[in-house]
Write a sequence for this structure.
């Protein structure tokens, strides 16, 4: 896509997200239908499904030939990244959504032939939309922003997945202890926002493609490194342990992993 | 103090906090002077000191005979809880303050002869003041609110101290794993706010008196349990591991600790 096309798509996506978020906020006091998926803390609500249905419908209507990877089953079985591929997470941080009615995100990522195009992480209750991509730059709502300083690991807070931190799986505890301190927010989207806005020096978690697709585009646009925890390139179509951090902290983390 | 006196004190304290918070927000982009205290992640800034100095000055001017316990040294060496004792934490969550310019709290607690009188936890950047006490009830800014539902441990998120969670000190990991999930916010005040607002079912951390004094008053006013991790009464004048949780979850946590 050329810049004009990307800007037109951006206008559409921002309108969809605003509609979906307004709808969600208006109905937050209504009856929640909560179901468990893989376990007692893997939840899905009627809001996840309705929001995903709405967003996927908008994409299909505007871009009928594109492929869609999404969390709650309204997307496609995507096998390869050729052409345009959308990633939709209607509610990232469903536990926070259910238990707190706060601190959750709506996310959309758009790739073309495997390349970053546009990413969106919307903090729904704070109405903070972090959006952008390599051709349009990085923005927080209406404001163009730059990426964070290239800080070392010890200079910043580090976002972690709770169980990985608690059990030191893949050295996550050692990494967090070498930072200024661990934080657990419970939403991959908000963790990515924190790293991109310079509030954390990094974040590690086991994630599904819809959890990291938007964040990867925004983080790379912000000059951050996004890799597997081993420093390898991300596979956009599978679950993996994702590390987003500064280029300064990346080799420090690799050394901790190898020691 | 009678209710009229308490209401008059409340008007004063809210005015002091508003002044201190406005001042802090206005100068956040100015030069930070950050010093380490006991270690590289135990920080104090010029803002902590100036804010404490201001709040302690207001208290001394209005209540010259009262005792003050405070973090940065402008208070007194308080040995007993008779009479009126104030607890002041100018910036709770200093690491968040320094690294994120967000997610920190200003706190004041007032006790009389060891009894709860008034507590204040101000989320400075969100401008959310949780305040109240046994005679005036619980309030979020201008709105009177009620306490959270009496949920079991498994029904809610649980706030933890990072190192205690990571090393399972005092069974903190086992407790968090029995909840819906662990969260680490990095500010005792904001953790207390979350529990009182029903966003978390509990919180455990090793805390100093100024970290828990305001929260204890508000949590008990909200119908929550505030004890040491062993279920014993809090000693207001020493560092200890504090547990705030629902009365439903308290015996569940005790059973985990004993197993």
């Amino acid at each position: 896509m050329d810049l004009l096309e990307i800007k037109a798509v951006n206008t559409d996506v921002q309108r969809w997200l605003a509609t979906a978020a307004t709808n969600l906020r208006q109905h937050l006091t209504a009856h929640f239908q909560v179901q468990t998926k893989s376990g007692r803390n893997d939840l899905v609500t009627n809001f996840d499904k309705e929001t995903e249905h709405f967003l996927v419908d908008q994409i299909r209507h505007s871009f009928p030939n594109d492929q869609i990877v999404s969390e709650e089953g309204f997307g496609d079985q995507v096998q390869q990244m050729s052409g345009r591929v959308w990633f939709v997470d209607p509610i990232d941080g469903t536990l926070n959504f259910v238990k707190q009615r706060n601190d959750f995100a709506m996310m959309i990522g758009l790739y073309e032939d495997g390349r970053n195009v546009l990413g969106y992480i919307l903090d729904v209750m704070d109405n903070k939309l972090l959006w952008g991509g390599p051709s349009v730059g990085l923005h927080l709502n209406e404001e163009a922003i730059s990426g964070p300083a290239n800080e070392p690991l010890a200079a910043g807070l580090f976002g972690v997945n709770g169980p990985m931190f608690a059990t030191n799986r893949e050295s996550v505890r050692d990494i967090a202890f070498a930072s200024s301190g661990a934080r657990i927010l419970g939403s991959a989207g908000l963790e990515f926002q924190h790293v991109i806005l310079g509030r954390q020096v990094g974040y590690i978690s086991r994630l599904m493609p819809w959890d990291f697709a938007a964040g990867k585009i925004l983080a790379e646009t912000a000059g951050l490194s996004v890799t597997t925890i081993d420093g390898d390139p991300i596979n956009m179509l599978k679950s993996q342990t994702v590390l987003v951090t500064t280029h300064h902290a990346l080799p420090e983390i690799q050394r901790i992993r190898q020691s």
About this structure: The mean pLDDT of chain A is 95. Chain A has two domains: 3-145, 153-258. Chain A is about 35% helix and 30% strand. The radius of gyration of chain A is 17 Å.
